[in-house]
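Design job #97: recover the sequence.
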């Protein structure tokens, strides 16, 4: 399978399992960097924002 970069709601592992149709134990994940940007979790929400 090709490498993919997920952001936003697909950072939620439960949702990612559904979208990829496989358990998280079969999903290889690695940290990624988007130069000159930062990701933070929105206050009281379950999704990230990029600034």
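Job complete. Output follows.
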């Amino acid at each position: 399978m090709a490498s993919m970069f997920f952001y936003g709601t697909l950072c939620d592992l439960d949702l990612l399992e559904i979208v990829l149709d496989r358990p998280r134990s079969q999903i290889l994940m690695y940290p990624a960097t988007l130069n000159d940007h930062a990701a933070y979790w929105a206050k009281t929400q379950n999704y990230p924002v990029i600034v």
